[in-house]
Structure formats: structure tokens, C-alpha cells
Specification:
The complex is a heterodimer of chains A (about 250) and B (about 110).
Chain A: H1 25-54, H2 75-78, H3 93-117, H4 121-151, E1 157-158, E2 164-165, H5 178-210, H6 213-217, H7 221-246
Antiparallel strand pairs in A: 1-2
Helix pairs in contact in A: 1-5, 1-7, 3-4, 3-7, 4-5, 5-7
Chain B: H1 17-43, H2 48-69, H3 77-107
The chains are: A mainly alpha (about 250), B mainly alpha (about 110).
Chain lengths: ~250, ~110
């Protein structure tokens, strides 16, 4: 604990004037909020892990895969659509594009933070704008993913009575057991909501930057704090991407 | 913009080339690991080994994002461990519950 601050001889840390763990109040609170949010997402993902492993896995060849309620589907056969390329089977391509967009927006965010350290308002504006754009692009892609999931693919799923079921509703989905759709919407929706709130916060901080608030304040730490939130959102996506689209 | 905003006395420092280069290097590493994950996704058959490799690579990406982008590697160690230790417990929880799920599937 002593390594985090320096103090005059005769004074102890408990005499005040120092900040715990060497960071400002706002930044520490953001870290602890992110830890709590990590618990929330962890709870969701652990539940997903539990429910998914309680279902049978598909054991046949990838090419012979058909949708069925008897086993959990394999992701590369569920997520194979791209906008504007109807009918083209491109497994995991679109989600790869989404991951690239979100990681790039994280890079632009950290560049905004670096510019903030130098009090370079113009550069902060530029990089924040790119980050906001990336967030909006990601949300648009996710909205399309949801729409396509709900509408369904051309093949659908064969039902016992001889008909075909397409897409997803609140009770059934064409891809696998009902839990599959439930977890897809719940977890990607929860994450998408965090992206949305992140975009709103980023826009607020962008507006403040343009108005010169942080120049007058003398530091751009707000950009850093909102940057922590945005990186957290990216981090959650990295895990969601692995557990939903890869495993 | 309101009148008089420009009068804040601000000294703008030039870009820190080394720091920016380091950030883009980390970005390239994240891209490379993701590309590797895609390669594995299409070449390996599904199973516990493939899943373990994916989880391992994801933890590598998480370490770079949290350590470099969120700067946690350079913070005071108390803060570092305050974040890391609870997450280790979460990993324990994940492994335990997947184990439970497999046991449930045996009973189903």
C-alpha cells in the first residue's frame, strides 16, 4: 500500500490528500463498476455454459449437419449469411467483420485517450468520432444479424408433421432447442445494449470535447474513463464471440 | 461554438510516436490471434481440445485488451489484483458449471 503514494515525513496516508490505489475517484469507481458488470456477464455466460453442456452436441460431419431440436447446432452452419449476398453460404464471415469493427473502434478509442494525454483537442475529436462510428456500425450489423436469425434461412427445419419451420419466435427456432435462441437473444442483446449506452456516452464526451470543457478543466481524464467502458464492451464481445460463434 | 472558447491556455504536445506504434502493434496482435481463431474454427473438428484452445486464445486477447488498452498492467498492483482475483474465481465457476451441465446431460 505504501508504494502507491509519496507523502511528507511524519505524515501517514491516513492523514488525507492521497487517492487509494493511485488513481482518481472517478477512474477507480469506473474500474469497480466494470468489475460488477463483468460479474453480470459472467453469470450469463456461466449459465449459458451450464445449459449448453446439458444438451447433446452434434457428433456427425459438418457437411451432413441439419437443424434439429435433438442437439445443439454448430455455429458455422447457423451464422453463414451476409447482408446483400442472399443465398451465399459464408460461415462466420459476417461475425468476423463485426469483431473487426469493434476491435478497430477500441483502437481508435485508445488513440483518443493518447491524444487526450497531450491535450490535443482536435485529435481527440477525430478519434472519438471514429469510435462512435464504429459503435454505430457494430449495432447496425447486430440488428441485421437479429433480423436474419428471426426470419430464418431458406432451408428451415423439418418438423415431425411434414411441414418446415423457418426462423425464430418466442417459443421455437429452426436452428436447435428453444434454449439456443433464448440465450442468443439474451446475451447478444445485453451486450448490444451496452454498446448502445457506450455510443451514447462516447457522443456525450465528444460533445464536451468539442465545447472545450476538458481544455478548460485542464485534463482529458473523462475520455480515459469512458474509454475504459468502451474497452470493457469490446472485451465482453471477445468472450461472446468465442462462446457463441466459435465453440 | 460559443465565443471565447478558444481562449483556454492549452499547450498541445506532439504525438508520442513510440506509444502510438505500441498501440498499433497490440492491435495487430489482436487481429492475428483472431485470424488464428478463424483458421482453427475451420480446420479442427469440434471437441474439448478445440474449445480449450479457443478459450486460451480468448484469454490472451483479454490480457492484451485489459493490460494494454485499459492500461491495467501499469497501474498500482493493488488495483491490478483487485480486478484479477475475482475473475479467477469466475473462471473456476465457469469450469464447475460446465462440469455440472455435462453431468445433467448424462441424466437427461
Amino acid at each position: 500500500m505504501d508504494s502507491s503514494t509519496a507523502h511528507a515525513p511524519g505524515r501517514s496516508e491516513w492523514d488525507g490528500g492521497v487517492s487509494p490505489m493511485g488513481v482518481s475517484y472517478g477512474k477507480l469507481m469506473m474500474w469497480f463498476f466494470l468489475l460488477s458488470d463483468a460479474f453480470t456477464f459472467s453469470a450469463l455466460l456461466v449459465t449459458y455454459g451450464l445449459v449448453r453442456s446439458s444438451h447433446d452436441a452434434y457428433t456427425g460431419a459438418v457437411d451432413a449437419f441439419t437443424f434439429s431440436q435433438a442437439y445443439w447446432p454448430i455455429p458455422e452452419r447457423v451464422y453463414e449469411a451476409i447482408p446483400f449476398f442472399h443465398g451465399l453460404e459464408a460461415p462466420l464471415v459476417f461475425v468476423g467483420i463485426m469483431t473487426f469493427i469493434l476491435i478497430m473502434s477500441s483502437v481508435t478509442m485508445v488513440l483518443a485517450v493518447e491524444a487526450g494525454h497531450r491535450m490535443d483537442r482536435k485529435a481527440v475529436e477525430k478519434w472519438m468520432l471514429w469510435t462512435i462510428l464504429g459503435g454505430i456500425a457494430f449495432l447496425s450489423c447486430q440488428a441485421w444479424e437479429w433480423m436474419h436469425f428471426i426470419v430464418g434461412s431458406e432451408t428451415g427445419r423439418a418438423v415431425a408433421e411434414g411441414t418446415t419451420f423457418f426462423g425464430a419466435n418466442l417459443a421455437h427456432n429452426q436452428y436447435g432447442p428453444p434454449d439456443f435462441a433464448a440465450f442468443f437473444f439474451f446475451i447478444t442483446g445485453f451486450h448490444g445494449f451496452h454498446v448502445f449506452s457506450g455510443v451514447c456516452l462516447n457522443f456525450l464526451i465528444y460533445y464536451n470535447t468539442v465545447m472545450g470543457t476538458y481544455d478548460r478543466r485542464g485534463h482529458y481524464e473523462m475520455v480515459e474513463k469512458v474509454g475504459l467502458y468502451w474497452h470493457f464492451v469490446d472485451l465482453v464481445w471477445v468472450f461472446v464471440f468465442t462462446f457463441f460463434y466459435l465453440v | 461554438m460559443a465565443h471565447g472558447e478558444e481562449h483556454a491556455q492549452v499547450t498541445v504536445l506532439p504525438p508520442n510516436k513510440e506509444k502510438i506504434k505500441k498501440l498499433w502493434t497490440v492491435a495487430a496482435i489482436l487481429g492475428a490471434v483472431t485470424a488464428l481463431e478463424f483458421l482453427i474454427a475451420f480446420t479442427m473438428s469440434h471437441g474439448p481440445l478445440k474449445t480449450s484452445i479457443f478459450i486460451g486464445l480468448t484469454i490472451v486477447k483479454a490480457a492484451y485488451i485489459v493490460g494494454e488498452f485499459m492500461h491495467l498492467r501499469y497501474e498500482v498492483k493493488v488495483l491490478f489484483w483487485s480486478i484479477l482475483i475475482p475473475m479467477i474465481f469466475v473462471v473456476w465457476m465457469l469450469v464447475a458449471f460446465v462440469y455440472e451441465g455435462i453431468a445433467i446431460s448424462g441424466v437427461r
